[in-house]
Amino acid sequence: xxxxxxxxxxxxxxxxxxxxxTRAMEMVAAARLRRAEQRIEALRPYADAxxxxxxxxxEAAGDIPRLPILVEHENVNTVALLxxxxxxxxxxxxxxxxxxAGVAAGREHSAQGRSVRYYASGRRPASSLTFRGLExxxxxxxxxxxxxxxxxxxxxxxxxxxxxxxxVDQVEIFYNGYVSPLTQVIRRETLLPLQRATVLxxxxxxxxxxxxxxxxxxxxxxYEPDPEEILERLVPDYVExxxxxxxxxxxxxxxxxxxxxxxxxxxxxxxxxxxxxxxMNRARQAEITQEIMEVVAGxxxxx
Length: 303
Fold this sequence. Notes:
Layout: H1 2-61, E1 78-84, H2 94-111, E2 115-121, H3 123-131, E3 136-140, H4 149-164, E4 170-180, E5 183-192, H5 204-212, H6 227-302
Parallel strand pairs: 1-2, 1-4, 2-3
Antiparallel strand pairs: 4-5
């Protein structure tokens, strides 16, 4: 019985040590989450302006100029799917949700007779896709805790090069969109070609709100140089800023998911400690009762 109590006491000690770790990780994730939220807030005006300028320049140019990055391929035979997640785990379903969304989209394209090329941002999606038997054309790792614009540019350059060289006919991105520390929503967006891009549609709501507030139509814009040349400069920036925004939102989502997961782990550890303490107390009571019975039996035998 004493050995049993010692085992339970050791388990309680181990669970308490784990609880200290999960609480520390929760606090670290909370601090990093706040910084990630600030970076998203700082980026949003610039990202909105780039997308709005790109759309307005495309409308002013009329027919999309015959520039390699702007040419829509006649047939969509190969699709590039960029799955954005994290380098580390212990974040609940954060990584697996993005991977599942990318794999499901790959099945949809395959069912339509298209070939799929996977790109991964983060060690977890890269390893998960490989584990599922899916070939990863290229992976980008080592920055998911704090992505820089240079990381987004590196991914964007690879995606645009694949599109211009004809390796792929469409580029889609999957990531966890940040809503709150408790809520992350999987987002699927088309980056290229520009004619199919879904990110450019997000500003229409803001413009309609401006009109509703009585701001009226925007002033006529005269472009210098031509809209075609401006669009040639804006499209790469649009792709880069769209990927950068996805990286930032994914980072914030990861910290929020990890904070929530560690909080739940700490609460579960408290429940387990209570159960183990109750088990140890019962074992101690049983041992005391057994000793009393032995004493009483010995006294009766002497009498």
